[in-house]
Amino acid sequence: MRKFFFLVGGAALAACLILPAAGQNLNPGQQRFRATYQEMVETNTTLSSGDCTLLARKMAARLKAVGYPDADLHIIIAPDHPKEGSLVAILPGSDPKAKAILLLAHLDVVEAKREDWTRDPFTLVEEDGYFYGRGTADDKSVAAIWVDTMVRFKQDKVGHGRTLKLALTCGEETNGAFNGAKWLATHERALIDAEFGLTEGGWGTMAENGGKRIALGINAGEKTSQNYVLEVTNPGGHSMRPVKDNAIYHLSAGLLKIGAHDFPTQSTDASREYFAKLAPLTGGEMGAAMTAFSRNDKDAKAAAVLAGDPRFNAAMRTTCVTTLINGGHATNALPQRVTANVNCRIFPGTTIETVRDKLQELVADPQVKVTAQAARSETSSAPPLTPAILKPIISEAAKRWPGVPVIPQLEIGATDASFMTPVGIPTYGFTGMFFEPDGSRLHGLNERIRAQVLYDARDYLYDLINIYAK
């Protein structure tokens, strides 16, 4: 999935130092957490050769070992997907009227080839203050913390009114693959019912030198990833008798029109807050544009400045881009069929059909047919960032990292929150973790995360869930 990281300026120098974790003495709880994390990273869960069901069973065994009864541990395997199973674990609260909290994470990881990596991607390596391995950040860091939180609540007999529900799923990393979160939302809705959920996303960022925390993010809503196929068919003919009515020309002209189009600017509560809080960290003309846009999302001058950076442009409108093109059948023949894929990231509140209609309008050519492909998830409005959600996050962050702001944002990629919010479980991307400017090398070679960042997030999220669960 695509993650969104902050652009920061000189004001970042006031942020907090990060101390390396290498060589530190771990207490028993940290040792247990590290063992859980290691087991996750070292269990291959790629789509091609991995097994999410195996890892789900391993995590269920860890919970059972600390007293979770079988009745509260659910291994869910959809027909025809034996290696893409999920785990749902439940820790009942004392208040039957209080709605539950959903702790959501995905177990699957992006493909990783040993010959390309400096270290074995499926061996957890701690080196120079970092944990290396596929999934060390995305998303086994979050999954391991949620399992550890469920263990700590059980072992420490933490009093809590709300029920805690853990859902570890498969299929998030591959569009078109079986998705466990989607399956739970459509087939096991009652089992995962909750007032709200937390999942990956909202990663914080650090300064260029990796030594200072700059800002912590929280995702409230995300854009919908949707593919459209543009197709032109033609009788074709011999290339020695060319005609203007050429399928490639028709399609090319339509794609140029799409590429030149800017969808209208839009905003959500989270995206306005994002620009407002990021402005003083950025400064200059860009910072001023952020402030102006946060006050008026129809400010054309501000939008023009923000559009100069692809990250900010994507945060304020639907975007569409051509990603694949295919056509023709011989070097000496006129093309008979030409297709292109246009990938759109649709702003919350805009429907898939509305965008399809706009693409067809832009093409302005009856010979170019625009068809929406199967949707990854439903489009939905962004969940509101209520004080009940946001205040505990801000207060707990202030205790640990004074002066480091919490900045709401709209996720411009895609997470499994997109399956939960539409079915009535508003789900927010929040991890309490900070990444360096390289984005922790998510989806790339030698993925890593600072060990101290992970241990700090473990304690932060445990305290946060304690507040929410009362």
Question: What is the gist of this entry?
Answer:
The protein is an alpha/beta fold. It has 13 helices and 19 strands.
Structural class: alpha/beta
Query: How far apart are the first and last residues' alpha carbons, in Å?
Result: 33 Å
CATH topology label of the largest domain: Aminopeptidase
Instruction: Describe the strand arrangement of the main beta sheet, using strand numbers.
Output: 1-2-6-3-7-17
Q: How many helices does DSSP assign?
A: 13
Beta-strand content: 15-25%
CATH class of the largest domain: Alpha Beta
Oligomer: single chain
What's the gyration radius in Å? 24 Å
CATH hierarchy: architecture of the largest domain: 3-Layer(aba) Sandwich
Give the CATH H-level superfamily of the largest domain: Zn peptidases
Strands, total number: 19
**Which percent bin holds the helix content?**
25-40%
Ranges where pLDDT stays below 50 over 5 or more residues in a row are: 1-23
Largest sheet: 6 strands, mixed
Give the mean pLDDT.
92
Write up this protein:
With about 475 residues, this protein is α/β, with parallel strands linked by helices. The protein folds into three domains: about 10-220 and about 380-470, Zn peptidases (Aminopeptidase, 3-Layer(aba) Sandwich), CATH 3.40.630.10; about 225-265 and about 320-370, Alpha-Beta Plaits (2-Layer Sandwich); about 265-310, no CATH class. Helix content is about 35%, strand content about 20%. The protein is built from 13 helices and 19 strands. It has helices spanning about 30-40, 50-65, 140-155, 180-185, 245-260, 270-280, 285-295, 300-305, 310-315, 350-365, 385-400, 415-420, 450-470; strands at about 75, 85-90, 100-105, 125, 130, 165-170, 195-200, 205, 215-220, 225-235, 235-240, 320-325, 335, 335-345, 370, 405-410, 425-430, 435, 450. The chain has a six-stranded mixed β-sheet with strand order 1-2-6-3-7-17. Helix 1 (about 30-40) runs antiparallel to helix 3 and helix 3 (about 140-155) packs across helix 13. The model is unreliable at about 1-25 (pLDDT under 50).
